[in-house]
Structure prediction request, 282 residues.
Amino acid sequence: MSQPLLDVRGLVVEYGHGRDLHRAVDDVSFQVPRGGSLAVVGESGSGKSTIAKALVRLVRPTAGSIVFDGVDLAQLTDRRLRPLRHRVQMVFQDPYGSLDPHLSAQEIVAEPLAARGERSRRVRERRAAELLDQVGLPTSALHRRPAEFSGGQRQRIGIARALASEPDLLVCDEATSALDVSVQAQVLDILAGLRRDQGLTFLFISHNLGVVRAVSDEVLVLRTGRVVERGPTTEVLRRPREEYTRQLRRSVLEPALISGRKPRDLVRRIAAARTAESVAAA
Prediction:
């Protein structure tokens, strides 16, 4: 079998010292094959976002290894890590807070190109326009600033900016949680298309089991920093083994917890899923 693009073993991340020491991630291991997609799911405080930050080295692991394409990122100094940073990019939860409010959409997306050494402003602007078009934003959006866009449009800019670095691995940290259900579907379609057309590898962080169906092959379920369940996405969604996972699944089927409009077909799917769950439990 070919070597996985990402191989995480025994990952531990701790915050604080002494009595204030908190173990946010506790002995977590997983692999993601090249071109594959893994969703890490859990409630707030489960450690999933800490894993995302460790992968892009926004936090340093306390123990364990993060082997990316044969190189252990956890052991690299900042200087040795720098040439690899463009290959692992992150799409953040807050599409507004992660964008420079003083720059236009085109300038935001062009920044990584300049950082990678592209000196021609014309080339940077042309490539930024191509990437914004790729995520479904029109040419009329090029010179507008983040405050002039909707939440879903801002998230598209964030995706385009990440793509400008030509990554091999895209880490999406709650990338759709701030969006209503109809816009979530649009962004998930974009991510699924990128994986299909460009062969990108994904690690998708979410608290919502429902949104991972479109983008992940496998699911890793976290609780208080530890893995409680893992398996193929369809299997975990259909027949979760752990009560904690079943609770996460039920929260997806609660209309009061779904933001945005609730069209009739969505209500029907919720009712059908609840019926199926009742039959399975009987």
